[in-house]
Batch of 2 targets.
Target 1
Amino acid sequence: MNFHIMTLFPEMVMSALSGSIIGRAIENGTVSVEAVNIRDFAGNKHNKVDDYTYGGGAGMLMQAEPVYRCYEDIIRRIGEKKAETGTVRVLYMTPQGALFDQKMAEELSEEENIIILCGHYEGIDERVLEEIVTDNVSVGDYVLTGGEIPAMIIVDAVSRLVPDVLSNDESSLYESFGDGLLEYPQYSRPEEWHGQKVPPVLISGDHEKVARWRHEQSLLRTMERRFDLFKKYVTEHPDEFVPKKPRRKKKKIE
Ligand code: ADE
């Protein structure tokens, strides 16, 4: 899996992705990430890549030509014969895009190359977006200062689905959403902490009971925290027993 990130802040992207599991995947060659500086394609003395918007209004816009040259350079290096639109997925990070979710991450993990375009200022000249972007992607209904953090989210969520990026132990972690439910709560030693005991079923040694309890907890947690996902799950599994929602424990304020 090769990510090509078009950005005005390449150091920010590379430094954030060089640690932890993704850093290890980059080091061992399972994943490659290059952050390409759009400013290198400015084509003018001052490396200027932004200008005023036609029609007036506050703020500057990233110009079409540097973005397009940067894209062409990446396409050429990927080895495409022609810079044809649609041959490589080009994700434009924008709050106006489709909401990124686990399903999209799974679909993207099948690609060999993904180009991610990070916007800044008031956005990017629409004409180059029309010409090169295949997917407009948002990471949530809020506005960030640029597309770099969203791009890192995509790289992280997609990379962990690429074979051999996670070790066996790691891949069993965070399986929320895999079956459309949030993951059940987990406990480690000691058996009692701050007066709270580990649920007895987990130390019963009865694997079937443990599995049933975990599934119930997943359902309850999804019902409490993500009713939208819960409704979808219940519609898709109409015959399944749904446990009663427990009364919420009030937190004591001392
Ligand atoms: N750029 C600014 N805000 C964004 C968001 N919510 N998602 C993706 N890109 C963005």
Target 2
Amino acid sequence: MTIRTIIAATLALATSAQAAPDDRIAIAAKLRDTALASNPAWPLLVDLTDSVGQRLAGSEAEARGRAWAKAAMQKLGLVNIREEAFPITFWQRGQESARVLGSNHSLAITALGNSGATPAAGLTAPVACFDTLAALRAAPDAAVKGRIVFIDHRMTVTQDGSSYGINGGVRRAGPAVAAQKGAAAVMIRSLGTDHHRNPHTGSTSFPAGTPAIPAVALALPDAELVGRLCARGPVQVHLVSTPTSQPGQSANISGEIPGSVPGEIVVLGGHLDSWDIGQGVFDDGAGVAITLAAAATIKASGPQPRRTVRVVLWGSEEIGVVGGRAYGEAHKQENIVLAGESDFGADRVWRVESRVAATGLPLFSEIAAALAPLGVQPQPGNDSGGGADVGPLAALGSGVLELAQDGTRYFDYHHTPDDTLDKVDRAQLDQNVAAWTTAIWLAASDDRPLRTKP
Ligand code: ZN
Ligand code: ZN
């Protein structure tokens, strides 16, 4: 090609209102390779991490995260930037420590989100040990009442993260089960796969009428210690955990590349809030940076898409998917044809999954073919859950796009002080951006129906 034809081709690409069907695939390949070679995800993630840091839901830091997100969207050329507020319960950890009485063992703990508080001076109680949540459920109240319940379930490493799904109930429901049986407090083995003395936080919940008792996670080495001590004989623990809860506020942020045909929207995004004990990089600064960078790549290097591309950065995911639920409720009348979220770290995408109307399956064949050079395989079936924040949209009928990431090391860092920038592999981060850019472009340049409900 001569310089003149290159310029002509570039101008044609930049000014054509809408890609012809045959061009969509070629443009997808071009966008994929452009994103792989250069995209703004890494500088965005560095800037979010260094200038804002951890972004606990409801905190002043989460609000600064929103200001950062709006400025980033503006800089990347997104328009119709919106902030939509919603109320939350603002939970903050207080003092936390634990030690085994009659020994010199202190335990590495972290309070679980939404958990209640011990007295300021702490509480001392005998420990009731259970291997699993099922064993706790089966126990008589008398074996639990007034005690600190310890649940020693074990999570294993899986590429797809399925072990988190299987074991997640221990953290989400275990404290409430113990509270209903009269427990004084709960300690769980962290939902994690590392063997550092880093406990993994995360949210729990107490149904109405169930007292919010103190609930903490133990680092894996500490959980193993307590398990061994339980096998030797009675164990007493002194526990201090003094979190507070108060009414607060969070918000969702969104920005768009308007489509050439109004009325059809493709949503992609991640969540802005994070836990307080790390820096919110893997969870979920990476998803924020990946999806912003994908939209920026389409905006800067592609023709105008047919459907509107909207990046949504949800607030308050960690403390109960409050942002995702609020977004679904506020946008239930909108024609969001497809939604996807990136919320599983920064390691490579290895699988593409869908849940769309039958008319959308040929689109997913195109997406799978375009992602194959990135090492991404299609997942058989058409029943993706999509993730926490898109769940409410999917329940309303939006189609689901899921780009599943390699979770082999995700639960080494998840919800720990080790969720820091140095853990991110930039090449894998860029592969994520390339995958999202490609899939979102193909969906947004298409017109085949995707919704599973009208
Ligand atoms: Zn997350
Ligand atoms: Zn999380």
